[in-house]
Amino acid sequence: AAAAEALAEIALRHGSYANVVSGPVLALRGDADPRVRSAVLSFCGYAALREQACWIVDHLASPDPTEARAARDALFALGPYSVDVLLREVAYGHRSKRDTLLSIIRELHVPGDTLQTLYEREVESIQRHLAYLFTLGGAGASEILLQRVEERIGEGLHTALLFLAAIRDKDRIAELAELI
Q1: Which of 6, 35, 67, 156 is the S-S candidate for 1 at Cβ 3.0 to 4.6 Å?
Q2: pLDDT band at residue 120, thresholds of 50, 70 and 90?
C-alpha cells in the first residue's frame, strides 16, 4: 500500500508526467486492500488518466469510505474530462451513486444548457414510456412487462429531478427525487 500511495503522491505533484508508471499502478486496480485501490484511484485522477473515468465512477459507492472519497477526489482531479462519464452515469447508472454524482456535477459547474438538454431528453423518455404503459395496459400485456415499464418511468422521474436540481441548484428537488 505504501508504494501505491507514494506513486499517487508523485502524480499529485507531477500530474500527467507520472503516466510513465501508469502500467504497474493500473495493474493494482483489483487489489484486495482498499488502501491500495484508493491510491490507484488517486493516481488515476492526478495523472489525468481520462480513460479510467468509468472505473473511478464505479468506486463512488464503495463500502470503504476512504476508497469512495478517493474516487470522488479523482473525478475532481480529472475535472471537465470526467463530465461525459458523470452525465451518462446519472442518466443510466446505479441509483446508489446518483446523489454523489449530482454533487460532483454541480461542483464541476457543468454548463446549464448541457443539463437542460439532458433534462429534456429524460422528460421525452418518460412521456414515451407513459404512452407505452397506456398502450400495453389496454392490450393486455403481461404484468412483468408493465412492471418494467413502470420501473423505467420511476427511474426516469428520479433522473429528471436530479438534472433539474442541478439546473436550479436546489437541494430540495434532489430530496424529492429520493422519494420516487
Answers
A1: 35
A2: very high
- Distance CA(31)–CA(47), nearest Å, equals 19
Q: Do residues 41 and 56 lie in contact, with contact meaning Cβ atoms separated by under 8 Å?
A: yes
Q: Is the CA virtual torsion 61, 31, 11, 78 positive or negative?
A: negative
What was the pLDDT predicted at 55? Answer: 93
Full 3-state SS string of the chain = CHHHHHHHHHHHHHHHHHHHHHHHHHCCCCCCCHHHHHHHHHHHHHCCCHHHHHHHHHCCCCCCHHHHHHHHHHHHHHHHHHHHHHHHHHHHCCHHHHHHHHHHHHHCCCCHHHHHHHHHHHHHHHHHHHHHHHHHHHCCCCHHHHHHHHHHHHHHHHHHHHHHHHHHCCHHHHHHHHHC
Residue 140 is placed in which grid cell?
Answer: 393486455
Read off the pLDDT of residues 25-60 as tens digits, 9 standing for 90 and up: 899 899 999 999 999 999 999 999 999 999 999 898
- Are 38 and 72 spatial neighbours (Cβ–Cβ below 8 Å)? no
